[in-house]
Every structure is written in structure tokens, then in C-alpha cells.
Write a structure and sequence with these properties.
The protein is of the alpha+beta class. The protein is built from 12 helices and 16 strands. The protein folds into 2 domains: 228 residues, no CATH class; 130 residues, no CATH class.
């Protein structure tokens, strides 16, 4: 987790592409596991970086409901895409984690809890929506009386190089969720990619003392007023090109007034209940546990894995599932994400990254569903959607 901000936090400097390569090298020399964007399996994913050549140079993504495709850019941008199917949650809140193992030797049983295994991560290219998502998971998994030690071990040691978005995707709506495209909050360094016919540079903002220490090792120059203006234009242009937006209404109140709205049944006719939306969501945190025993009865273990409120088993209690219908499960996801999350954690559970729209096989759009309920209410339909 980024350290206390230094007195130089307001400084801005500019590094070249070679300076970015030097940054990756400096992080690796410190023993950090550097994770960033790279192309794999037809998508931009987050994985280990050995150097600058691993970044998706000249690659962008085209996203619409139920559609994601990589395409070539007409420049050499290294961060010229929106977001891919993965989020940093993959590294901080692991998809599969052994919690403990037990072994029997005669009449003796030994139980060992799985110790946290901090990876000393350095994340490169964390977008504003993703930075907000990490902050939300911090509240959920570290902000209460019961702290997840495995999440905390990864989060406390993470070095974050954020990135102000220069490319809005067709399903992005971070502006209407007040979650981007300009980064804010806890980061160590923040980049803005500046492309011109004569230069390829990055404006760098310092967010922590650790960030200042590393930046001091890199070849850089002070930022000029032209650099600052160019960076501001990048963010403004991105904000103006959002592919989606949420309706400008009190969304929690809107949804809680319309729990019996016919739209829930309408969307359920398309929803496959596949859980894609929750798997790609950077804030969803639901898990389940599974126990394993070997055939000899000597070893046992318990693992935790990501789960989803879209699965029948997730809401199963003695006698059956609490939410047996697809409509009830979709309503649970959407109202929790946009409404009751406020009651639990003081914030929305959505950051407007658009992943749930792009990676829904049938292209269900959370902004469209919210707007439909809002439009019905404005037309006098009220809670049951009828005028």
C-alpha cells in the first residue's frame, strides 16, 4: 500500500519511454514482482512483465455489449486501451486460496493455517476506475473488525503505478460513477502518456515517498506548462468520450423503490446466470469454501474460491435456494452493487469500468437496465412499471 505522501507529492516530471523501461528495471531490482498489461489469448491481460517490450505497444481494444476485440492503433501508445477482462483483484484477492490443511498421524491430528504469502507486487498501469475498485475492496476486506490477512499481506506491500486514461472504451462509464478517468487516491506514481509527432513521453506525478525515491533514480526533466496542459487535455478528451453513462438520479433510492419492477423479469429472459459479470468485476468479493479429504483419511484441507450470487448454491440454505429464479439473482446483484453496498460500506460497488457489459455473453448493460427503470418511473409507471 502506498506510503504517506511526501512533501514533493505536488511535483510533476516527465520521463521518456526509456525512462519507463528504467522504472520497470528499478522495481525489479528492488525484488518486486512487476505486473502489468500485455497481450495474451486475444485480450489485454495483467501478468508478469520482464521489460518494456512486454507492454501492448500500438494495441487498443474495441468494446461493446457482449463484444471485445483487439485492434491496431496508428501510433506506438503503450497504454492505448481501456480495460481487459482481468482486474488487480486477481492478485490481491486470489481466485483460489488454501486456508488450512490437516494431517493425521495415528491418534494425533495436526492443523496448519495457511500463512499469508506476500508477493511484493508492483502494479503498472492501474486506471482510475481500478484504483477506486482497490479502495472499495480495502474497505470490504480490511476496513472492519475482521481483516482478511491474505488480502492485507498483498495490499500492504503493493507499489502502484497508476495511469490516467487516454482511451475510453465503448462500455466505459466511470465519469458518471465519479471514478475516473483521472486517478486520485492512494498511488505511488501516476503516469499520463503524452504522444506527439515528435515525442513519446510520460508526465509523472508523485504520490508517495517510495514513489519519489524511485523517480529520483530515473532520467527525467521538470514538467513544463505545456506538458501539464497536454496531460489535462488527455484526461478531458477521455472524459468526453465515455461509451455509456448512468442516469443522473438517486440510484440507490430508485432501485429500492422498484424491487417488484417488471424489468427484472424482462432481463432474466436474456440472462444466462453464467456469473461472467461478477468474475470480471473488480469489486465483487464473494467467496465460498470447499473441503477436501484424501481417500486414506490422512490429509484434509479447506480452500476458498471466488463465488457469485448468480449461482444457485450461493444462496442455498437448508431446504433450498433463497433466490431460485434468475430474476431474483440478477436483482440481488444489481441492487447490492448499486444500492445496498452504500449501506454496508459507504460507497457504490460500481466504478464504471464496463467489464460486466463487455463480457456478458448476451450483452446485458447495467446502465441500460438502470435507465429503463428510471424512465418508467419518470413516465409515471412507479414500482410496478405500469402507468
Amino acid at each position: 500500500m502506498p506510503e504517506t505522501k511526501s512533501s514533493a507529492a505536488s511535483d510533476r516530471r516527465v520521463v521518456t519511454v526509456e525512462g519507463l523501461a528504467a522504472l520497470i528495471g528499478a522495481l525489479r531490482r528492488r525484488g518486486r514482482r512487476v505486473i502489468g498489461p500485455r497481450v495474451a489469448d486475444g485480450a489485454i491481460v495483467y501478468d508478469d512483465l520482464d521489460g518494456l517490450d512486454d507492454l501492448p505497444r500500438g494495441v487498443t481494444d474495441e468494446q461493446e455489449p457482449g463484444r471485445y476485440k483487439l485492434a491496431s492503433r496508428d501510433d506506438d501508445a503503450l497504454f492505448g486501451y481501456a480495460v481487459g477482462p482481468q482486474s488487480w483483484k486477481k492478485f490481491l484477492h486470489k481466485p483460489l486460496l488454501r486456508l488450512w490443511r490437516a494431517e493425521r498421524s495415528g491418534d494425533d491430528i495436526t492443523v496448519e493455517a495457511e500463512a499469508p504469502d506476500p508477493q511484493n507486487f508492483a502494479f503498472i498501469g492501474v486506471r482510475a476506475c481500478e484504483l477506486n475498485a482497490i479502495a472499495i475492496q480495502d474497505r470490504v476486506l480490511m476496513g472492519g473488525d475482521y481483516v482478511d490477512p491474505h488480502y492485507k499481506a498483498q495490499r500492504d506491500g503493493a507499489f502502484i503505478v497508476a495511469h490516467n486514461c487516454g482511451e475510453a472504451g465503448g462500455t466505459c462509464f466511470c465519469v458518471s460513477m465519479k471514478a475516473g478517468p483521472k486517478v486520485a487516491g492512494d498511488f505511488d506514481l501516476a503516469l499520463t502518456e503524452l504522444l506527439s509527432p515528435t515525442a513519446h513521453e510520460f508526465l509523472v506525478e508523485i504520490g508517495s515517498r517510495a514513489g519519489a525515491d524511485i523517480l529520483a533514480e530515473l532520467p527525467s526533466r521538470p514538467a513544463s506548462s505545456d506538458d501539464l496542459a497536454a496531460a489535462a487535455r488527455v484526461v478531458a478528451d477521455t472524459a468526453a468520450s465515455m461509451g455509456r453513462q448512468m442516469p443522473d438520479v438517486d440510484i440507490p433510492a430508485l432501485l429500492m423503490r422498484n424491487l417488484q419492477h417488471p424489468r427484472w423479469n424482462e432481463v432474466a429472459q436474456r440472462c444466462l446466470s453464467c456469473a461472467n459479470c461478477t468474475m470480471v468485476c473488480p469489486t465483487c468479493f464473494c467467496t465460498s469454501v470447499e473441503d477436501y479429504n484424501d481417500l486414506a483419511g490422512v490429509e484434509s484441507s479447506r480452500t476458498r474460491r471466488w463465488d457469485s450470487c448468480f449461482t444457485m448454491d450461493y444462496s442455498y440454505i437448508h431446504g433450498g435456494s433463497v433466490r431460485p429464479s434468475v430474476s431474483s439473482r440478477y436483482r440481488q446483484w444489481m441492487t447490492h452493487k448499486l444500492a445496498t453496498w452504500h449501506e454496508q460500506f459507504g460507497t457504490s460497488g460500481c466504478v464504471g469500468c464496463g467489464r460486466c457489459i463487455s463480457w456478458c455473453p448476451v450483452g446485458i448493460d447495467i446502465t441500460e437496465e438502470t435507465q429503463a427503470i428510471s424512465d418508467t418511473e419518470k413516465a409515471g409507471g412507479g414500482r410496478n412499471g405500469k402507468s
